[in-house]
Amino acid sequence: IIASQLVVPDEINVNWKDIAGLDHLIQELRETVILPIQKRDLFADSRLTQPPKGVLLHGPPGCGKTLIAKATAKEANMSFINLDVSLLTDKWYGETQKLAAAVFSLAVKLQPCIVFIDEIESFLRTRTQHDHEATAMMKTQFMSLWDGLITDPSCTVIIMGATNRPQDLDKAIQRRMPATFHVPMPSDTQRERILHLILKSEPVAPDIDYKRLAASTEGFSGSDLHELCRQAAVYRVRDLARDEMAREMNQNKTNNTDSDDEFVDAVR
Ligand code: ATP
What we know:
By secondary structure, the protein is an alpha/beta fold. The protein has ten helices and six strands; from the N terminus they run βααβαβααβαβαβααα. Helix 5 packs parallel to helix 6 (about 135-150) and helix 8 packs parallel to helix 10 (about 220-265). The protein is elongated. Bound molecules: adenosine-5'-triphosphate. Adenosine-5'-triphosphate binds near residues 62, 194 and 223. Adenosine-5'-triphosphate binds near residues 21, 63, 66 and 164. Its main location: mitochondrion. Keywords: ATP-binding, Membrane, Mitochondrion, Mitochondrion outer membrane, Nucleotide-binding.
């Protein structure tokens, strides 16, 4: 189960070049996450400069949190485990505790490694008295495994969580994620950059007005822009295919009429 969620650095298919309009965030990730991994000796020297073992990306859906997490792993030459939280929250699964331990031990074996948890608030939300006993135990176990990473200065495993509801996260979890980054809805200029990136190698019209397109897509996330471009591309191909089929049908009709005439001539 875990292996199916695992990617080694060579197989990660995205890097910084696949992210548009977030240069400032990339720079911060470089300094906060990547530099301490690459210059571990310098950072691990003092307790005050320990690299972060928890990073939180928060912001609206479709704005590139998963993309950023993967690209960070790629750029830092780290393995990437995408942990499906439903495996840990399914109370009937029964094996969740073993699984959590297995994920951490796999990450330690593969280090440097990022363990990515999308919608992290869904299983590490503020604890309540109504928590199911199994859920409470799982959270406690998860945090103690995480603390194991935090207290080991030589360990280069980072838990990277993504959420669009940071306010729902347990305070204890927030403390374990000292590096927190906002991934916002793209502005006009950012949408323009994203559109340029998506359409980079596509057969677009030479007079395409990216500025106007960006201005008319206010409220679109990067993922919405991707879907918009995909639909436009599909419409174009569909139009071409429809024209080609109409031409072929006309051709067939002409051919059939010709052979009908030949048949009539032969009978005569
Ligand atoms: P969710 O919260 O729904 O999981 P997310 O914030 O993790 O969403 P991603 O899954 O990373 O968003 O982004 C979805 C897709 O949107 C990406 O695969 C990419 O095609 C496109 N995208 C989003 N933001 C950007 C960006 N800044 N630059 C380029 N592409 C982007």
